[in-house]
Each structure stands twice: as C-alpha cells, then as structure tokens.
Amino acid sequence: MQSLWKIAVAVTAACGLLWNPAALAQENTPAVPVEWYDCNFIDGKDFDDLEKVNAKFNKWADKSMPDYAAWIMVPNLHSGVDYDFGWLGSWSSGAAFGKGTDAFMQAPDMQEAFNEVVDCSGRHVMATSAVVNAPDGPPDNGVVVFSACHHRDGKTFDDSYAAHKKMSAAMTEMGSKGASWIFYPGLGTNEDLDYWGVIAFKNYADLGAATELWTNGGGWKKGAEILGPVTSCESSSVWNAYLVRDGGR
To answer: What is the DSSP string of 8-67?
Structure first.
C-alpha cells in the first residue's frame, strides 16, 4: 500500500489539525484519531490477495502497533464512489498515532507487500472520531452509514454533538440498534462539510429495522424536531465493513 501512514509530520505540530477541540470536550469519552484511504486493486489482484497481506500485516502490527484497529469498507449504496474499497483505521490516542506512524515508515517490506496488491495513493485523510452512542464499541463486521453534515447558521460543534446525542437516545428508546459517532475533518480533508455523521449496525436486518422506525415509526418527526434546527445531514452512503484487526479493543 502507498505507505499506510505516510504523513511525516511532527505530532505536536499536527495536533491542532488532527483533533477538533469541540470533540475533546464531549463528556469524558476521549476522541481518537482515525484515517481513511481510497484504494484500488492492482490489475489481477483481488480481496483474496489482500487477505494474505492483511494476515502478514496483523502479525507485524501485533508487535509494532498493537492498538491499531482497521476495517475494509466496501461501498454498497452510494453515488459517485469511484474506487474499489476504503481502508478505515483507528488508534487509541494521538501518542499511539505517532508511534504507529514511525513504526510503519520504518517497515519498507510491509509497505511493499501492500503496494503489490493495492494502490491507495489517491486519497488519504485524517479525522477525529467522537462517540455519540456506542456502548459496545464498533461492530466487528457490519454495515456503516456515512452522512455529510452542515451546521445551520449560528450553530456550533457543541450544538450538533448535543443534538446527535439526543437523537440517538430517542432512536435507541424506539428500538434502534445503531451505534453512532461524529467524525470531525482533520489533516488532508477538503470536503465541503462540517463533519460526518456515522451510524453502524451489526447487519442489514438491524439497519432495515432502524429505517422502518425512521420512516414509519415517527423517527423522521423526531429528527425534524431535534436535528432540524441545528444541522442538515445528507449525501448518505452505505458501506459493508469487514474487520482487519480490532486493536485489542
């Protein structure tokens, strides 16, 4: 892979861009750095080949980057995704991000193993993940919905976080099994949005049940009441998530 962690910057210089202060202020749940790669297979290669590299990567990461978690994200319901899959990675802290970056930059054999199978040089972006409602953490394999969100005039990150928190509690009370996060844009991002709303389900049955609650169970009315005055979330896409490693979590 085109160096999974090729951002060669000092962690102290990057902190202001990697971690949004609003995210850090939310309750007592630490915000964590995440990364995303747009990836395409090299001609003749496929997921079977990538699985072999991932196995090698896991053995390396168990010693050199034990807390790193990663998922392969395959687009399913979308408009305009022009790459084969996304790579979503997460560290437990900024310090872990820095150590992991250094370790991978000093592992050319591991980098070359990815480069022989995939090309992920098109886009590499960072974000901050703040938990909205995920008591069990992210699912191993599952379904993830990303939505691009924009603040209403005069509203702030604190306002939108509180609104998503309230909306998630309302949907959970109605029976939804979704877990949710907010991703704040960081290094490398230039999308026209304020943040991503992220909801994960263990399977499509749970996503379908939540959709039913939203459309026919009154969820959209609560959304108009709670989220409507604060933020607008649209351009949603649905991805199949496959766990590469859980980072010991």
So the answer is: ---HHHHHHHHS-HHHHTSTTPPPEEEEEEEEEEPTT--HHHHHHHHHHHHHHHHHH-TT
